[in-house]
Design brief:
CATH class of the largest domain: Mainly Alpha
Distance between the termini: 41 Å
Helix content: 55-70%
CATH topology of the largest domain: Four Helix Bundle (Hemerythrin (Met), subunit A)
CATH architecture of the largest domain: Up-down Bundle
Order of helices and strands: HHHHHHEEHHH
Shape: elongated
Length: about 260
């Protein structure tokens, strides 16, 4: 499946080639000419932006074949950036090579059946409306966690979910004016102790399933943020998904 970034990259490539051809034909400097210099700089910036968006849209874990073709293009894009603005003829040659690869190798992978997985699923990892927009920071954390999952950044997703639940526990205790129960020497307890306090606190009324899932969230959140030898995987998060949604919803009721 071709995303908007793919089409925009091709359009940007054609436009940048057009600007370079005009500059070469008229022997204008891309460093100093009052019209072609800014047009060329803007064209190169646009081309690179859409290439980076392509990399974002096709992460290696979900689209390995597309990602491989993008990896072969990256040195060519970098070389064009390196040559700008001094070598327009060489830049044109490189852009011709990029154009050929995009129209053949990359196009073949973009149009392959395995590249048709939705990049922006209609159902996020967790519902975006779990947290009210009255709590902008918490809502932004949830949004980032969903974006991380969608982009196959599972370690980052686990770490952001850990942060969200930790913040929700603290806010819940503070809303009930019992924040002192989760502090020691004026500082909030570390996440593991917060989980224990929340599970034992009768005012929060957490269900058995939520009490069971919170330690698992801590494990994977810590794994994603700190472990040098292992990674959080999609299946890890998928196993937590439903119970975690319910647990967050229970905590949100106390805000």
């Amino acid at each position: 499946m071709r995303t908007a970034a793919a089409d925009n990259f091709v359009a940007g490539l054609k436009e940048f080639q057009k600007v370079l051809r005009g500059a070469v034909k008229k022997r204008y400097s891309l460093a100093t000419h009052r019209v072609y210099a800014p047009k060329a700089r803007a064209g190169l910036a646009t081309l690179r932006k859409h290439f980076l968006m392509l990399i974002r849209d096709y992460p290696d874990q979900r689209f390995p074949k597309v990602a491989f073709q993008l990896a072969t293009l990256e040195p060519l894009i970098s070389k064009v950036v390196e040559l700008f603005p001094a070598e327009p003829r060489e830049m044109l040659r490189l852009l011709g090579e990029i154009d050929f690869k995009v129209a053949s190798d990359l196009a073949a992978e973009l149009d392959a059946p395995e590249a048709t997985v939705s990049l922006s699923p209609s159902v996020p990892f967790l519902p975006n409306d779990l947290v009210s927009d009255r709590y902008r920071v918490l809502q932004k954390i949830l949004w980032e966690a969903n974006r991380c999952y969608d982009a196959a950044c599972y370690n980052a997703c686990a770490a952001m979910m850990r942060r969200l639940v930790e913040s929700l526990i603290i806010e819940a205790f503070e809303r009930h004016t019992i924040g002192g129960r989760i502090k020691q020497n004026g500082e909030y307890l570390e996440f593991g102790s917060l989980i224990g306090k929340a599970s034992a606190e009768p005012m929060l009324r957490l269900t058995r399933n939520t009490k069971r899932i919170l330690p698992d969230l801590k494990f994977f959140g810590d794994l994603g943020a700190h472990n040098r030898m292992a990674l959080v995987r999609k299946d890890d998060l998928d196993r937590l998904r439903q119970a975690l949604r319910v647990g967050i919803e229970e905590l949100v009721q106390h805000l």
